[in-house]
Specification:
12 strands; six-stranded parallel β-sheet; homodimer; elongated; six-stranded mixed β-sheet; alpha/beta; DNA-binding
Chain lengths: 331, 331
DNA sequence: TTGAAAGCGCTAACAC
DNA sequence: GTGTTAGCGCTTTCAA
């Protein structure tokens, strides 16, 4: 089908293109009769406005760039869901950018995003450092960061206070039993989150006057955390493990079971991000319910507010978490 | 930062915008000296070409629309990964569209896609019916379908012969033991795949001269397949279950274990789509390794070929699968 | 090798 | 109410 343009519609309806434009955009100053004529022509020709041309004329694209870490959609998925659901409401499209570790130059992504002249950017990614952020902010589109407390003139953020979540959990455990040893499992693909978790435990230890670090670093030679735990879990000086993602928690859980430890008696395990799989493994994994869907939805909502110059009461939006006790923890 | 345009660069470099355009696009007919001047100006001003304007001028957007089923990225993720990885190579952006069951009108999505004037579409979705396909094909962009054998003038497809995979598996089992009863678990969000699986078992039964249907329909009142299996697995007339997605296989597996059945002795379970979780549950799930990443990568590659009018030997590309035996099946 | 100018499809003043 | 016209930022003939 030959691409039909606004001119074709105008000719078909016997009006000027300006009138067609008015009809398309629902401006009220068009006479009923004319509008009907135009609409009939639109239907007849199957005309759909060219968003690119509109974008050029209006200097906006109704596209949003979303940057997520390497494409492990397992734990990114809910965020994307939330994002897309509200993006649809406000008629924005999502251009998806992933950062496969090391393979793609961050600079290239930033470049692509700028060239594509999106109206805004949502970033859920530890690895986008200040340098890149600075690059972005030279162009004046609004940015929303997920998972990281930050804000600025045209930067907002939506996050959960993970440090505090971990802190409260660890503190509770330590108060219950001073001999409990809480350890945080490193998440290689989420440095920032890992650091937050560590700060949480450390704060708890400190508050209890215990000299302990609480950081379980996964040596680089282990490609899968399961292998690491299989080799080491019996010797680990921790009996309460906190992991960020389900796969890591499950790895620890399986390794523990298979090395003769019972859960939660010998080792307790908690997962930060909730996923359906936490509920599918046995014993079921206790977990925080980091509201991933909401993180995405709220981020997108805030972005639309920035885009429409609506009032925003707070550019640093903290969402609350919930702890869901299942069978991998005591009491 | 004021958006810098090609005019700004031209003025800065003391040349015309046509020359700047030539430099940007790497056309050889620019004198070295001039090119250097222009490049210096580009650097100095931090100019990045406006992809929207380029799009208008060239009537192409370098954007690809990707349509995936409701946003359960768990099993869509690998496909998206593959897609994006090769999209990057060819400098295409991915606009992501999801179809949350029932909530979004398919028509609206088609509409959005057409308005956005993407260069091509990749669809991984059972629910996009012929009606919508027809709508798409009125506009002349190329389409690649994932998971479904189909082709046409500007439609190609990349898929795995699931019917055959299931057929071979079922046949082998039945030949081994005529009393074995193979059942396919309905996947509500993937009608097409479900039907293919059913045809596979039915063909095997038929070939063995056995009067059996092999379809395990999950009644609508069960929101989670786990609940259904918990209620029914002991009475199910099947001892060899085939599920499409990991979560369904795991549901059956958990329900079986918890109802006193042992795996694989009493019930065997196989999952079609492989995921890391298949390897994380106990017993580990035997599974086909449907090459999801490759499905995405190949789909995108084919699309680029169509976009660049390259020769395509086959518009129906069948990818092969592998069966990975783990602990949820015998022998 | 470079510049001038038309055109991609649309919006938004500004006239009428 | 409706039409005319000047952009939006870029590519691409066609001339020079």
């Amino acid at each position: 089908m030959k691409r039909v343009t606004i001119y074709d519609v105008a000719k078909e309806a016997g009006v000027s293109l300006a009138t067609v434009s008015r009809v398309i955009n629902g401006l009220e100053i068009v006479r009923e009769e004319t509008r009907l004529k135009v609409e009939a022509a639109i239907d007849k020709l199957g005309y759909k406005p060219n968003a690119i041309a509109q974008g050029l004329a209006l200097s906006k694209s109704t596209n949003i760039a979303l940057v997520v870490p390497e494409a492990s959609f397992g734990y990114t998925g809910q965020i994307i869901n939330g994002l897309i659901d509200v993006a649809k409401i406000y008629k924005y499209n999502i251009i998806l950018h992933t950062m496969s570790e090391g393979i793609v130059e961050i600079k290239d992504i930033v470049d692509e995003i700028i060239k594509s002249r999106v109206d805004g950017v949502i970033i859920y990614n530890d690895k986008l450092l200040e340098k890149e952020m600075a690059e972005f902010s030279k162009y004046d589109f609004p940015i929303v960061i997920i998972g990281n407390r930050i804000s600025d003139d045209n930067i907002a953020s939506v996050f959960v206070d993970i440090e505090n979540a971990v802190y409260e959990l660890a503190l509770g455990k330590l108060q219950e039993n001073e001999n409990c040893r809480v350890g945080v499992i490193q998440d290689r693909v989420n440095d920032f989150t890992t650091r937050e978790m560590i700060r949480g435990v450390q704060k708890a230890y400190k508050e209890m006057g215990i000299e302990e670090d609480g950081y379980i670093e996964i040596p680089a030679e282990y490609r899968r955390s399961y292998d690491y735990f299989n080799d080491s879990i019996k010797d680990l000086p921790y009996n309460f493990l906190i992991a960020n993602r389900d796969s890591q928690a499950i790895a620890a859980l399986n390794a523990a079971k298979e090395n003769g430890l019972s859960i939660p008696e010998d080792v307790e395990i908690v997962c930060l991000i909730d996923s359906k799989y936490n509920n599918m493994v046995r014993p079921r994994l206790s977990s925080f319910a980091i509201p991933s869907y909401d993180l995405g939805a709220v981020a997108m909502r805030v972005l639309t507010k920035m885009l429409h110059d609506e009032e925003i009461d707070d550019r640093e939006i903290e969402l609350s978490y919930l702890f869901t006790k299942r069978s991998s923890t005591k009491s």
